[in-house]
Amino acid sequence: MKQQTRHFTSELTVIGSGLAGCSASIFALNQGISTAQTGNTGAIAYTTGYLDLLGNLPGETPTKLDSPWEGIEKLQEQYPQNPLCRLSKEEVTEAFDQVVSFISKAGIIYTKPDGTNKTAITPAGTSKPTYSVPGTMLAGVKAFKSKSKCIIIDFKGLRGFSSREVVANLQNDWPSLSAARVSFPDMESGEIYPEVMARALEVPAVQERLAETVKEILGDAEVVGMPAIMGMHNPDEVMNRLSALIGKPLFEIPTMPPSVPGIRLREMFEQVFPQKGITLIPQQKVKKVEFDIDTVELHLTDNYGPIRISSQTVILASGRFLSGGLEAKIEGISEPLLGLHVSQPETRNDWYREQYMDSRGHDIHYSGIEVDDQFRPLTADGNIVDPRLFAAGIVLAHQDWIRGRCGAGVAIATAFKAVQGARKVIEDRK
Ligand SMILES: Cc1cc2nc3c(=O)[nH]c(=O)nc-3n(C[C@H](O)[C@H](O)[C@H](O)COP(=O)(O)OP(=O)(O)OC[C@H]3O[C@@H](n4cnc5c(N)ncnc54)[C@H](O)[C@@H]3O)c2cc1C
Fold first, then answer.
1. How many CA within 13 A on the CB side of residue 331?
2. SS3 178
3. CA–CA separation, 399 vs 366, rounded Å?
4. Residues 342-390 pLDDT 10s
5. What is the pLDDT of residues 135-187, one digit of tens each?
6. Angle CA(388)–CA(324)–CA(281) in degrees, nearest 5?
7. Which atom of ligand 1 has the smallest separation from the CA of 287?
8. SS3 sequence, 277-322?
9. pLDDT digits (tens, 9 = 90+) for 59-88
10. pTM for the full model?
11. Residue 1: is its pLDDT beyond 70?
């Protein structure tokens, strides 16, 4: 039997539910733009939870930045095509403030950016500059700064996080750090997973039992670090309760992907966006886009059958290779949904440098979609593809977010500009 096509209309449709797509939906919501959004999990479930603006200045030897703004100023001189150079400081600040405030109000507290980078601990126990951290990780930033007596705890059976590795990597900078391993309540044998532990830790009885175990090995530690497992839905509450039971400040350190802080964000967006009026079609990809005279028509299918969205404007925030926003093939790098022109190294031989760990990075990471100042994709000849189409996030060319430590920065800042552009089109039609 032929299934009936469900039809939605919107002023804006966001293709992608990574950080860029979700930020675009937040900006659209804040401006009263009726919005539809779709996309698979993407990289959001892999992220550490830290929101980086610009942590490193790429170059022969990448430099760690205390101030992302000094870094952006240098980028303006050295690499003006970087998307972060296309926004004013006020615009980037406003974009971050809106996103951090939305996420915090929705139940995952983040620190309000104060203009400087903080030093945060990575899953491997190295340190890195970042711009905003989840509230559950803040005590770690403070403890690292003051070099307090701190114990890092890991769990029997948990892979991808080792307290001994964290201590070994940080010990030169933080000599009063120690490591311990304990068992997680009711998960004493076999392999255990952060996501399962986080959900279990929402139960008060589990918090109490874990607190008892931790108290036994505390010694003279003033602060306790743990892998990011403090609940999936109310992490700040879980952490505060556990901290009160243990009697010491606690903090989370992100684990290897998939990571609980990323899954928290994804689950929160999936819950909150529909409540706020967004037409969210989760875990689905747009198959076809048609630019008609009056509307842009987007086609996709979910478990209930085919869907058509008629939209006035579209933001493409489909990510890079991991999320399928770009594809790398023998013939070159392409954008599979709309067949957009992709800026890329001249030949395949130029994608990578000889050494994998080359400090300059690899040219393939600068590939992506070319846009104008309003973030409208351009053809190879520099013409606007369609005035109703915008692009945001790491699908954009001229930024290596991995080396620049600017994943969230590029996603949030460019989504802000793309929504501004879409809003102008929507208003002009009224
Ligand atoms: C391991 C790892 C660690 C990271 N750590 C950090 C960190 O510490 N700090 C930081 O700031 N950033 C970090 N990031 C980066 C961050 O998670 C995002 O990758 C980045 O912010 C870019 O987001 P994006 O929305 O542009 O792309 P993505 O997150 O890749 O999202 C793209 C979205 O587009 C969707 N999509 C693709 N094609 C279609 C289609 N046809 N139809 C509909 N949807 C489509 C995908 O399903 C996905 O939802 C990390 C990323 C990884 C992988």
1. 4
2. strand
3. 5
4. 999 999 999 998 888 888 889 999 999 999 999 999 999 999 999 999 9
5. 999 999 999 999 999 999 999 999 889 999 999 999 999 999 999 999 999 99
6. 65
7. 41
8. CCEEEECCCCCEEEECCCCEEEEEEECCEEEEEEEEEEEECCCCCC
9. 777 789 999 999 999 999 999 999 999 999
10. 0.96
11. no
Q: Ligand 1 mean position to 42 CA, how many Å?
A: 5
For residue 279, the cross-strand partners are 36
Distance (Å) from CA 406 to ligand 1 centroid: 12
pLDDT tens, residue by residue, 244-271: 999 999 999 999 988 999 999 999 999 9
CA pair distance 50, 411, nearest whole angstrom: 13
139 lines ligand 1 (CB under 6 A): no
Residue keyed to tokens 């989760």:
282
Atom of ligand 1 nearest to the CA of 131: 11
Q: Are 172 and 284 in contact (CB under 8 A)?
A: no
Which domains are assigned to the chain? 6-107+263-429 (3.50.50.60), 124-255 (3.40.50.1860)
By C-alpha distance, which of 81, 83, 74, 111 is closest to 96?
111
Query: Is 95's C-beta closer than 6 angstroms to any atom of ligand 1?
Result: no
Give the nearest ligand 1 atom to 44 CA: 17
